[in-house]
Structure formats: C-alpha cells, structure tokens
Amino acid sequence: MKRYFFFSLLVFFFPVVAYAAVDLGISQGDIHFSKETFVAGDAIRIYATVHNVGDQDVSGYVSFYQGASLIGQPQAISLLKNGNPEEVYVDFIVPVSEFNIMAQVGGTDPEDSNSSNNTAITGKITPIIDSDHDGIDEKNDNCPTMANETQIDSDKDGQGDACDQDDDGDGLSDEVEKELGTDTTQVDSDGDGVNDPQDAYPTDKEKTVIETPQEETKETIDSSTVSDTKETFQQIVTKVAQTIRETSDTQSDPSSSLDDQEHEETLLDTDTLSKNEVTINEVSISPNTVFRSRRESWNTFTFEVLAPPNDSTIYVWDFGDGVNSSKSFVSHTYNSPGAFTVSLTMTDASGVVSTDSTTVFVPFFSLSNRLVVVSLGLLSLLLIIALVFFFSLGRKRFKESSHV
Questions:
Q1: Which residues does 116 contact at the CB level (< 8 Å), separation at least 6?
Q2: Could you tell me the residue ranges of all domains in the chain?
C-alpha cells in the first residue's frame, strides 16, 4: 500500500509527457533537375529529396505541380526514423513560357503533425527556344536551324558559316570555292590583292589574268597555209570563233548558246555587242508579287521579299545555280552566263507555305564578261596582223605585176 502511494506521488510531482512526433520536411533546395539549361520541348527529370525530422517511421507520397497542374503521378515514400532522406522524381516536358515547380508531401501515415514544411516551390524558370539544340537561344542564334555552338560568321552578314552558302561573301559559293581549292573564309585566298571572283588564278599569287596564247596566233597566220587573201581572213575568223565557242560552252547553259554562223557574225558586229549590254538597276517583280529582283551589274542581282521581314518566317531562296540563302534581302553573283530560275519558299509560324519564282538572265555577250573582252582583244590583234599581212602580200604582187 505504501509502495503504490509513493509511486503516485512521483507521478504527481514529476509528470512525464510520453508521445512521439511525426514530421516529414522538404525545402526549396531539395528540388533539382537533370539539366541546367531548360530548352522548350525537352524532356527533363525533376527530383525532390524528403527528410524525416520526427522520431517515428513514416510513409506517404510526394506530388509535383507546374502551377496548378499535376505532373505525372504522386510518388510513394517511406522513411525510417533517424534514417537517410529519400529521393523521388518525375519526368517533365519543358514548356515554352516561364514556369515554376512545386513539390508537396501528403498522405502520411501516421499523420504528419507539422504541415508547415510539407511544401516547396522553385523560383521562376525561363526556358530558351533552341530547335537545333546547340545551346544558343534562337533569338541570338545566327543559324537557328543548324547547330553551331561557335557562332562563327566570317563575312559578318548575320548568317553563321554553318548555314551560309558563301562564308566570306565574295560572290563565290562555298561549293564553288571547294572545287577551285580556294579559302571559303577569305575573299582573296592567295593574298595577291585581287579578290577570288576577279582572279583568273585565285590560288596563285604570281598570276591574276589569262595569258594570250601567242603560239596559236603564229600558227593561224602561217603564210604556208594561205592560198589567197579571202581564204586567209576567213580562216582567222573561224579559228577565233571556234575558240570562243568552245570556252563559253563550258561556262554557260547549252540552251543559251548560238549556232556557229550566228556566233561568228556576232563576234564581228560590235553594234550587236552594245545592244546586248544589260541595263544596270533594272527592277522586276515576281509573278505573284512576293519578291522583287534588281540587277546591280552584269551578273549580280539583289533579291528582296516585298512583305515586311518576320523573325518567325523561314525564307528559302534557290538561285537556280545550286546556291541557296535564308535571308529576306540577299545579293547573289552568278559565276557563268545563262538563264536561271530564282524561286522563294516562305513558311510562316503557323506552317503556311508560299512560293513564287522568276527567271533572270546573265548574257554571255557583255563587256563585263572577262572572256568576251579577252576574246575581242585577241580578235582585234589577229585582224591587225592579217591586215598587215594582206598589205605586204598586195605590195609584193603589185611589184611582180609591174615587172611583167
């Protein structure tokens, strides 16, 4: 009896609160991602780490939200008292607009006695638009549809080398320069002071112009092959015409070449050459009034979209000679004469495609064509030599007839 009485006194004077706390916790720093750069449309993984700060074993789940929208399914958790924290995750598609992520602990068993630390929210996250996945936001990417982390732009035209058909902007496409063996990033590959398009030998700094074939001239006017004055003159003209025709056939569209008789007559008629000179600054509009072209020189044109430029619209030019461009305003130089079909394809942000095309003509017979100038010079030289020869031959025959 005394023993029970003594025990009651101990409880009365030294009360003991005998209960255990249930408490799971998560904070903003416990949320992290599988990638540091958020690219719109990419699949990433969201992780959350949960801690047991109470003194009982607890089970439950973690739910992830973008705004008010649930991401995936709630993830089950089970934490021991005084044990290690537990990590769960869900997969997520990065949206195109600004967002944040919330992780929330719920469904605890036993019931969580402290709900103030059951929710964590990240700060605002702004994704980038990067369809080529080179780490450069499209609004700052000089080749938005082609990966180019270095953003090299040799000619400083706003279009990176990775998608520029003419890296150095000298008028020769990269494809043509590779065939010539010239540097696609330098306008003067051999450093002789003459730019590649105007250099007859763009990889040889010792030569820049085509040399006149002197041996051929001597062979043409060899008196041993001449029967009379008329036959000699005709042979000279025919030889020069054939040389020019064979050279021009390799540089122009076969459909635009003249037949032999017309070719020879044109070479002899300087009035015809003058009439064939192109009109500089000639402007024309495409059939559907989508773009306009302007002739800047014999073989150079500028092309401009008539509608105001739009960053969300994709432009694809095809100049008809294997060269393309994606600018709304572009200048292009043709490397050979002929008729070229220029087409423009535009795709707007909603996927609507518009096309239009026109034909531009680069004439062979132009004083701006170096081959024509050289040929005319050669022909003039041959004619002078022929006249001197005919004059000497005439004097010789006159003397012979005088003696008779």
A1: none
A2: 17-121, 283-362
